[in-house]
Structures are given as C-alpha cells and as structure tokens.
Design goal:
The chain has about 350 residues and is an alpha+beta fold. It contains 11 helices and 10 strands. Strand 2 and strand 3 form a beta hairpin.
Length: about 350
C-alpha cells in the first residue's frame, strides 16, 4: 500500500481491497473485522481500508482486473512470447515499463490519457506523509556486536557504524532491504550522505539458514579480501633500515611480502645488501631485480646479484622461469633411452 500511494503521489479517502487474511481477520454476521495493524497503517496515511463483499464481483471494481492483466501481459506465456524472468527485480522492471505504456496512451473508455487524468485527481488527494508506516519498513532488528542483523535465521551485514542501532528489515521480492533512521545516530559515519531520516542502507539477495550474506565492503578494516582469501599485508617500516629498503620501489615491497612467508633466512642482511647495491647500480635496477626475485621465488644469498647481472647482459622479463615441479635442474633420462637395446 505504501509503494502504491507513493507511485500515485497522494492519498485517497479510502482504498478497496480483496478479503485477504492479512486485512480481514474475521467476519461476524457478515461484517468484516479489520486487522488492527492495518487500521493503524490506514490512520497513519489518513485513509480507510475497505474490503470487497464476498461473492459480489460488482463490489470489487478493478481489484480483480489486475490479476487478469498480469496473466495476459506480464506472466510469460505462449501467447505473449515473454521470456522467463531471472529475478523479481526484473519482473518489477517489466511492470514499470508496462505501466508507463498503458498510462501514457489514450484509454478506450474515457478517451483520455490516464497520466493526465491522475494529475487532475491529485488536487483532490491528501498529502502523503514523508515517513512510511512502521509496517512498510519491515521487522525491527538491532544491529548486533558483530555488525550483522538476523532475518529468517540468516545473518546479513549492514554498513559500518551502526552497531547497537535499531534497523528495519523486510523481504522485497528476492532481496532483503535494511533501513535505518539516520536521525537517531549520535555520530554519522563517513559513508553516510544526505539528510537525516529513514534511509535504505543495504540490499542483499535472500539466503538460506547457515549461509550468511556478508558484503565485505561493509568491513573496511576486516582482514579479508573480496575473494575471501587472506588480505595481502602492507609493509610499514619501523626503522631507518626498513624505510630505506622499501623506498627502493614496489619490487622491494613485493620481495619482502613473498620472502617473509617463504621462511627466508638472514632477511635483514639481504635487505641491507639490496640498499648497498642500489647505491652502486641505481635504485630502479635493484627494484626491478627484487620484483623478479619475488615472482620467481628466489631468495637465496646471491640471487639478487645474479638476477641483476643477468639483466644487464641478456635477460628479458618474459624469459623468467619460476622454480617449480615443472622446471627441474635435475638431469633427464634421455641417456637411458637405448638401455637394453641391441646395437647393430
């Protein structure tokens, strides 16, 4: 109802619906008993909710026509040749396109364009309240200490800076929407833009229990990369020797990142030797050699000097060979190819 009123741009005196159990909880002597939450929602928007008379098609007006229109023009059938929708959002887009088409062409009965008739009718509608009713926002949840909200036994991540705050979550098609009242925040995070008030802060695909949905961009300081692997460490020098080595360039940083987990011994001595070599042949040459050593996994005592000398004479980075199982320095078995064969 909130979405419909906002699409129209105003509030009528009443709305007419079918006899859903969400609206009519009982019937006493033929009189419909309204759901109290729906009555509260109607009071919030300034309208009354009416239901159709059972088994009286003349009292339903156009509420039944929407189903017929959907079946004829929106649901994929052999008649309209529509393809299957991959998501609920795609179906919603098709509905929006259909509404634009039919509301901007001349109606057969009235001879007028529905959108222009709506502009005239808006002058008779009540103003629409800016904040929606709490029912339209969804279910109230608190952002837990691990910066997640739970919905349907599944954890979903909101953006940073909302721990301990109240959030509203609701299923919107095949997505979960998280809404927060920004005016209640004592300190607004840096990512938060726009005026204070209710705002959608996150939208996730609905998931199943045991499969949490985590957007890692909501955790800028979390030690995980977007692919789920460990974050690549960032070297931070703590003394002059480390600073001098890292200032050689990106190759030096790559060398340190790769050499450390490889169990390289005398790593500080090798870093100092690289700085001394840079004073002789230039920081750029040494940095390139360090990058090649990091790529090839060569962290031995004289590897840096060997790579630098090789580059000065005949090396090309394209000819780089990584020492692994497919590139061995062991002699081959070609000499044994004729073993046991009779020589004529």
């Amino acid at each position: 109802m909130d979405s419909t009123l906002r699409a129209i741009g105003g509030v009528p005196t009443y709305v007419l619906t079918d006899n859903e159990k969400t609206l009519t909880i009982d019937r006493v002597a033929g009189i419909a008993v309204r759901h109290p939450q729906v009555v509260a929602a109607g009071r919030h928007y300034g309208l009354q909710v009416h239901t159709c008379v059972p088994f009286a098609p003349e009292s339903k007006g156009g509420s039944e026509a929407t189903v017929r229109i959907a079946k004829a023009d929106l649901v994929p059938t052999d008649a309209n040749l529509r393809v299957e929708y991959s998501s609920f959002a795609q179906l919603r887009g098709a509905c929006a396109v259909f509404c634009q088409q039919v509301n901007n062409r001349i109606h057969r009965e009235t001879g007028k364009v529905p959108s222009s008739m709506l502009d005239i009718e808006k002058s008779r509608l009540h103003p629409l309240p800016a904040p929606p009713h709490a029912l339209a926002l969804g279910e109230s949840r608190q952002v837990l200490r691990d910066q997640k909200v739970r919905f349907g036994s599944v954890r979903y991540s909101p953006p940073a800076g909302l721990v301990g705050q109240e959030a509203w979550v609701r299923a919107d098609g095949d997505e979960l929407v998280i809404v927060v009242d920004l005016s209640r925040l004592a300190h607004r995070p840096e990512w938060m833009q726009g005026p204070a008030g209710l705002a959608e802060v996150a939208r996730h695909q609905l998931s199943l229990p045991g499969r949490p949905v985590i957007d890692l961009s909501h955790y800028p300081d979390h030690p995980q990369e977007m692919d789920g692997g460990p974050r690549q460490p960032k070297p931070k020098p703590v003394n002059d020797a480390e600073k001098a080595f890292l200032e050689l360039g990106p190759g030096a940083k790559s060398w340190l990142i790769e050499a450390s987990p490889a169990g390289t011994t005398r790593i500080r001595v090798k870093m100092a030797a690289a700085v001394e070599l840079a004073a002789l042949v230039g920081a750029g040459e040494v940095d390139i050699a360090l990058g090649l050593a990091a790529t090839a996994g060569r962290f031995a005592e004289d590897d840096l000097m060997s790579i630098n000398q090789h580059r000065r004479h005949s090396s090309r980075p394209a000819d780089l060979v990584v020492a692994d199982e497919s590139h061995s320095v062991q002699p081959g078995t070609s000499a044994w190819a004729d073993f046991g064969r009779k020589v004529t």
